[in-house]
Amino acid sequence: MPIDVDTGPSRRVRSVPVRRALPRLVRDPVSALAEFAREAGGEVVRLHLGPFRPYLVTHPDHVQQVLRTEWTNYQRQGVFWKPLGRMLGSSILGEGEPWKSSRKALQPLFTSRYVAEIAGEMAATINERVGELAGYARGGRPIDAAREMKDIVNQAVVRVLFGDKISREDGERLAPAYDTAAGSIGLRLLMPFVPYSVRVPGDRAFMEAVRTVDDVVFPLIREARADPGDGTDVISALCRDRGKEVDDRQIRDDLVSVYGAASETTAMTLTWLWPLLDAHPEVAAKLRREIEDVVGAGPVAPAHVPGLGYTRMVLQELMRLYPAGWIFPRMAMEDGVIGGVRIRAGSQLLITPYATHRLDGFWERPLEFDPDRFLPGKQERRHRYAYFPFGGGPHQCLGQHLFYVEAPLLVAAVLSRFRTAVRSPGPFTPARSASLRPEQKIELDLTEVVPVRRAS
Fold first, then answer.
1. In Å, how far are 30, 98, 231, 404 from 103, measured between CA atoms?
2. Is residue 357 a contact partner of residue 387, using CB atoms and an 8 Å limit?
């Protein structure tokens, strides 16, 4: 179906009229934006949504311009950030001085060297929690993939963030609260122009979830301020380094933002893995062979991660098709031009890796799952911003190193102990949520495998 065009100040601007845009966005906003981008061949598209008319920016050249070369003119402000700001506050996901201060404090905590220091404890937590899944396998009961991925990742991340300062009970309160918050703002993201004086479905659940997060985090901050100690956990480091510079609220915002990036991103990404492996048995078999060769009888350890090259390729392709951070809104601070289209100051822009990762001009068979796209050497021939699951430019996510240790450890821990089969019928489609999560429940049947013991 062709996209309408209207006359812009610099060239003819592609646009999608409200009669087409609104129904598709309400039904499935994630897929709708990808469809609009593919129909336009990656050109800038204006979405007419009544009084609200954002620009959809998906071509890698244009994405690079917004996120990197002219990033100071396209900032994380405007109506799309208000729902997230109510949860995350002013911190690493903000702009200006709070962002600079938070990034300066947090960046040393997420280097490859630091992640290597905490990887052993993370692996121990993952091994212990994955081992508890054996009860489901022996009892013939399926697991809820999203819930188990969130629970396992949550326990690993909570140890990294809070060390021994948090009880298991409080740690287990964080995951469902954050999950509720992320899943209940779908309508706010779809209708950012609706004032907060008007209640919409999800508002009450969102605010209750925020209160739960605050009830857990603020007492931990006060405790860590009183005695930060010399621990490597994030809260101790923040309270040592920033304790005299910022108030409890700023540290809370930093912690909650990092928790979401480290926990929600990994858990939601891995939730999509299981139906893909089910639908591509050849990939699943190759992945299992590598894990058997590298991990053997287990338990999985950080020393195994460098040997899991194909596992990393599978994860990279998984994030191409299902990037947890599926949308990066921006607002133009001053007039600009993107792809020949004049963008007025105050205009809202939608950057979506989910859509860019599916553009035919930059990916062969873009809708197919093929980890071999990420064979060493192939990526060097690809546009830098054809693939950006962690964002780009100065705002690029700090959690990349953590993801590429945490996710392989979890996948290897599961597949070294179990065979998985998806019980739910599917198809699985994206939900209206701040992070990319399936609308439908993904149930997995687990079967224990005989450990492979390598000769000493």
1. 29, 8, 20, 20
2. yes
